[in-house]
Amino acid sequence: MRYIVPLLIVLAACDSPSPLLGQAEPIRLQRAGYDITVWRAGDRVEAIRHGMARRADKPQLRGVLMQAMQDATGCDLRENSVEGDIGVLRARLSCDT
């Protein structure tokens, strides 16, 4: 019983943006069979992939997350700004508007 509260806290944080994104609204989409949540605040963007990654998909998941960020925001990603892994990816945006 004493493990339930810490477990719920950990699970609640699974679909939350980093503190830099503050009160950003989530954009939920599906790409390559994965549920992805994209968070945007100003020129910062973060993508969170949900679920287990299939071994065969791992090499292309970074690109899938990058494309999801572009699809959700309508902006390009700034060159050399992408960081993170295939679970959580962060970047800066380059928007014309």
Please give the number of β-strands: 6
Shape: globular
Order of helices and strands: HEEEHEEE
Q: In angstroms, what separates the terminal alpha carbons? A: 52 Å
Structural class: alpha+beta
Major beta-sheet overview: 6 strands, antiparallel
Q: Kindly estimate the percentage of residues that lie in beta strands according to DSSP.
A: 25-35%
Gyration radius, rounded: 14 Å
Query: What does the average pLDDT come to?
Result: 85
Show unreliable segments. 7-13
Number of helices: 2
* Helical content (DSSP H or I, runs of 4+): 25-40%
How would you characterize this protein structure?
By secondary structure, the protein is of the alpha+beta class. It contains two helices and six strands, in the order H-E-E-E-H-E-E-E. Strands 1, 2, 3, 4, 5 and 6 form a six-stranded antiparallel sheet that branches. Strand 1 (26-31) and strand 2 form a beta hairpin.
Provide a brief overview of the structure.
The protein has 97 residues and is of the alpha+beta class. It has helices at 4-12, 58-73; strands at 26-31, 34-41, 44-50, 76-77, 83-84, 88-94.
Main attributes?
33% strand, 97 residues, alpha+beta, 2 helices, single chain, six-stranded antiparallel β-sheet
Describe the secondary structure blueprint for this structure.
Layout: H1 4-12, E1 26-31, E2 34-41, E3 44-50, H2 58-73, E4 76-77, E5 83-84, E6 88-94
Antiparallel strand pairs: 1-2, 2-3, 3-6, 4-6, 5-6
